[in-house]
Design a protein that fits this description.
By secondary structure, the protein is mainly alpha-helical. It is built from seven helices and three strands; from the N terminus they run αββααααααβ. Strands 2-1-3 form a three-stranded antiparallel sheet. The longest helix has 31 residues. About 3% of the residues have low confidence.
C-alpha cells in the first residue's frame, strides 16, 4: 500500500502543471504572468501603442499600482459610469460591449488624469517666456525639419504650445514624484 501511495504521488507530480507564476510583488501586491497577458490584451483593445517587452510592461503595471495606491488616499477623483462610457465612445474602436476589465482600465486612466490635474496641474502655469522659448527652441526647429512652409507665427500656435509646455511640465512632475514613490516602496521583480 505504501508503495502505491508513493507511486500515485509521483505520478501526480509528473502531471502537475504550472497555472500561473508571480512576476512581481509591489508592497505585498502580487502581479502574475496572467495579469501581464491581460494587461497586454486590454491595452491592445484600447488601441494603445503595444509594449512588447515584458519587463517594460511589468514596470508599467508596477507604476500603475503605485499610482492607484496614492489615488486611494486623495479625495475628489471619483469617476462615474457616464465618464467611462464617454471615454470609451471617444477613444475605443467599437467592437461590441467592452469587458469589465476594459471598463476598469478606462476608469483608472480617467482617475489618474483627474488625480494628476488636482495634485500637480493646478500649480503649472506656463509663462509667456516659457511659450516663446518652446516656440523658438522646439516648435520652429521641428517645423523646419518637416519642411513646413510657411512656419506659423507664434500668435497662431500659442494655445497649442501652451498645452505642450503644460503637458511636458506635468510629465516631469509625475516622473519625479513616481521615482520618489518607487524608492519608498518594496518592489521585487522576478525573471
Amino acid at each position: 500500500m505504501k508503495r502505491a501511495v508513493v507511486f500515485l504521488s509521483f505520478a501526480l507530480t509528473l502531471h502537475a502543471e504550472l497555472l500561473d507564476r508571480m512576476v512581481a510583488v509591489v508592497d505585498g501586491h502580487i502581479i502574475t504572468a496572467s495579469d501581464v497577458r491581460q494587461e497586454r490584451e486590454i491595452s491592445m483593445r484600447l488601441g494603445d501603442k503595444p509594449i512588447e517587452d515584458d519587463k517594460a510592461l511589468v514596470q508599467h503595471m508596477i507604476d500603475n499600482y503605485l499610482i492607484e495606491t496614492q489615488i486611494a488616499d486623495f479625495p475628489g477623483v471619483d469617476v462615474t459610469d457616464a465618464d467611462v462610457d464617454a471615454e470609451l465612445k471617444n477613444s475605443v474602436p467599437n467592437e461590441g460591449v467592452p469587458s469589465d476589465a476594459v471598463r476598469e482600465k478606462v476608469r483608472l486612466r480617467i482617475r489618474m488624469r483627474k488625480y494628476f490635474e488636482l495634485r500637480f496641474g493646478q500649480f503649472i502655469r506656463p509663462s509667456d517666456e516659457d511659450i516663446r522659448n518652446y516656440y523658438n527652441n522646439v516648435f520652429v526647429p521641428a517645423a523646419k525639419e518637416r519642411n513646413v512652409n510657411p512656419i506659423p507665427p507664434l500668435d497662431q500656435v500659442t494655445d497649442l504650445i501652451r498645452s505642450n509646455v503644460f503637458q511636458e511640465s506635468l510629465n516631469h512632475e509625475i516622473t519625479i514624484w513616481l521615482e520618489a514613490i518607487r524608492r519608498r516602496s518594496s518592489i521585487e521583480v522576478f525573471q
